[in-house]
Structures are given as structure tokens and as C-alpha cells.
From TrEMBL:
<dbReference type="GO" id="GO:0071277">
    <property type="term" value="P:cellular response to calcium ion"/>
</dbReference>
<feature type="domain" description="Copine C-terminal">
    <location>
        <begin position="7"/>
        <end position="131"/>
    </location>
</feature>
<dbReference type="InterPro" id="IPR010734">
    <property type="entry name" value="Copine_C"/>
</dbReference>
<protein>
    <recommendedName>
        <fullName>Copine C-terminal domain-containing protein</fullName>
    </recommendedName>
</protein>
<dbReference type="InterPro" id="IPR036465">
    <property type="entry name" value="vWFA_dom_sf"/>
</dbReference>
<dbReference type="Pfam" id="PF07002">
    <property type="entry name" value="Copine"/>
</dbReference>
<dbReference type="GO" id="GO:0005544">
    <property type="term" value="F:calcium-dependent phospholipid binding"/>
</dbReference>
<dbReference type="GO" id="GO:0005886">
    <property type="term" value="C:plasma membrane"/>
</dbReference>
<dbReference type="InterPro" id="IPR045052">
    <property type="entry name" value="Copine"/>
</dbReference>
Length: 132
């Protein structure tokens, strides 16, 4: 179910938004996450001033290798104290080693190019080829 301002309600809403997006976009490279993460972080950060009960989830479905790994890491570190989690779903046969780095499930938190350390791991990476 779609809500005002591009918001969706529940898994059904996510799936409907995804189906709609596929009909309205053309998929192409390069794979760049930094800007979209910065935008999601800005929205999550702005919400803190008027409603601290909101939590945001950014779903990224990708079939490519990142071309902006450091910018993405920097964006994730900056966003790590916001009410935001990011689910990255890898589709296809690409090398998703970078996504595993972003996920930080190895116990080491991400570090930015300015040596800031993420306050928490906000990324969960799921390779679809391992889900079946």
C-alpha cells in the first residue's frame, strides 16, 4: 500500500513500490551507493527534529560492483548514529566482496576516510544466490 510522499506500508508496500519502480527506471551502471545513502541519512536525520519514534530502512537491490566504495563507507559511518538501517540485496553473479565489507559482520566497524568509526553496523547484505 502506498502512503503519501512516496512512503510505503509493510512488505506488500515495498513489493508494490519495487514493481512500480521496475516499470519506470532503466537499470544501468555504474553502481554508486554514496549519494542514495546520504539522501536516506538526511531524511532520517531530519525526522529526529519532529518525530523520534520513526525508523527508516533503505532497501538497495544491486547486480554490480561498487564504483564509489570509499564514498559509500564515509556515508555509512556518518549515518551510523541515525534511525536508519540498510538492506542490500545482491542479485546475479557479480563479485559481492565489497558488500560483505560494508556489512561489517566480521566484528570490525567501518572506518571513514577521515578515521571516524561507525557507531554501529547499519548494513545487512544478502546475496540472493545463497537464499534459494
Amino acid at each position: 500500500m502506498f502512503l503519501p510522499a512516496g512512503k510505503v506500508d509493510g512488505v506488500e508496500g515495498i513489493m508494490a513500490a519495487y514493481a512500480s519502480a521496475l516499470n519506470n527506471v532503466s537499470l544501468a551502471g555504474p553502481t554508486l551507493f554514496g549519494q542514495v545513502i546520504n539522501t536516506a541519512a538526511r531524511i532520517a536525520g531530519q525526522s529526529l527534529s519532529y518525530d523520534r519514534s520513526k525508523y527508516f530502512v533503505l532497501l538497495i537491490i544491486t547486480d554490480g560492483v561498487l564504483k564509489d566504495l570509499q564514498e559509500t563507507k564515509d556515508a555509512l559511518v556518518r549515518a551510523s548514529d541515525l534511525p536508519l538501517s540498510i538492506l542490500i540485496v545482491g542479485v546475479g553473479g557479480a563479485d559481492f566482496t565489497q558488500m560483505e565489507i560494508l556489512d561489517a559482520d566480521n566484528g570490525r566497524r567501518l572506518e571513514s576516510s577521515t578515521d571516524w568509526v561507525a557507531t554501529r553496523d547499519i548494513v545487512q547484505f544478502v546475496p540472493m544466490r545463497e537464499v534459494h
